[in-house]
């Protein structure tokens, strides 16, 4: 059956996703950066409070995926900490200056991961050659690749997603970026094995007093009194469609 991974920016969202039927959680911080490494406190709480598999992302900053020596050192420390906390998987990825998989560094990461399942994240969507990268990630032994099919949204990249799914001899191809309730069936119809969605809604801050003219963000137009949270009803509805599809196929 197709699995649904929900991207969660906090432990509360992870609990909501689990209760609604998600199969797995990608745990992140910093949604406006596209997901960064969660804090140690969040990692510990996730291990204590969430029963389904949680795969934290290891990403030291936003932007590209070509990292300095100090950034890579921090990533290795984070991977080791996540492994030692007992997580079943981790989400990570890095490229070299020519937008190929940084094989030397990824080999080090794979060794550090031990028994953890490794998801290579959407750095794949910035790589120079998706077919070459698929083979390299197969050789490395990664469990899955999170990708939009090298397009801004997975729906736009569905042709490459289908091609990668049917040609992969190792990693599971997981479609992500703009996967939502309204287009879910399109991915099921082409045989995508795993789907990644934020399944979110905008939630207003509970604060009654709001200081005008002071922002904590460099983008002063950002609304800091609202944030996106996982919508349990959406997760439940997505899982319902997936379950019905599996019955129809069977």
Summarize the structure.
One of its GO terms (molecular function) is copper ion binding. By secondary structure, the chain is an alpha/beta fold.
Q: Give the fraction of residues assigned to helices.
A: 25-40%
Oligomerization status of the protein chains: single chain
Cα-based radius of gyration, to the nearest Å: 18 Å
Number of strands: 10
Query: What spatial form do the alpha-carbon principal axes imply?
Result: globular
State which percent range the strand residues make up. Answer: 15-25%
Structural class: alpha/beta
> What is the overall pLDDT average?
95
Largest sheet: 8 strands, parallel
The H/E string reads: EHEHEHEHEHEHEHEEEH
Low-confidence stretches: none
- Read across the widest sheet, the strand sequence of neighbours is 3-2-1-8-7-6-5-4
Count of helical stretches: 8
Distance between the termini: 10 Å
Provide structural commentary.
- Helices cover 37% and strands 18% of the residues.
- The protein has 8 helices and 10 strands.
- The strands form 2 sheets. The protein has an 8-stranded parallel sheet with strand order 3-2-1-8-7-6-5-4, with helices on one face. A two-stranded antiparallel sheet has the order 9-10.
- Strand 1, helix 1 and strand 2 form a beta-alpha-beta unit.
- The N and C termini lie close together (10 Å).
């Amino acid at each position: 059956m197709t699995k649904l991974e929900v991207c969660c920016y906090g432990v509360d969202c992870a609990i909501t996703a689990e209760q609604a039927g998600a199969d797995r959680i990608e745990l992140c911080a910093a949604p406006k950066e596209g997901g960064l490494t969660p804090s140690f406190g969040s990692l510990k709480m996730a291990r204590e409070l969430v029963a389904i598999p949680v795969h934290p992302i290891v990403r030291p900053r936003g932007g590209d995926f070509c990292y300095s020596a100090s950034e890579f050192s921090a990533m290795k420390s984070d991977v080791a900490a996540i492994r030692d906390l007992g997580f079943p998987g981790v989400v990570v990825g890095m490229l070299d200056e020519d937008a190929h998989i940084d094989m030397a560094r990824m080999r080090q990461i794979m060794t550090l991961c031990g028994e953890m399942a490794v998801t290579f994240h959407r750095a794949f969507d910035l790589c120079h050659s998706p077919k070459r990268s698929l083979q390299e990630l197969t050789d490395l032994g990664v469990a899955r690749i999170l990708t939009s099919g090298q397009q801004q949204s997975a729906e736009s990249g569905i042709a490459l997603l289908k091609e990668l799914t049917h040609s992969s001899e190792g990693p599971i191809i997981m479609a992500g970026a703009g996967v939502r309730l309204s287009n879910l069936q399109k991915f099921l119809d082409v045989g995508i094995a795993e789907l990644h969605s934020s399944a979110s809604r905008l939630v207003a801050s509970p604060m009654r007093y709001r200081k005008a003219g002071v922002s904590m963000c460099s983008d002063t137009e950002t609304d800091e009194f609202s944030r996106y949270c996982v919508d349990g009803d959406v997760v439940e509805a997505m899982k319902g469609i997936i379950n019905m599809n599996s019955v129809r196929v069977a």
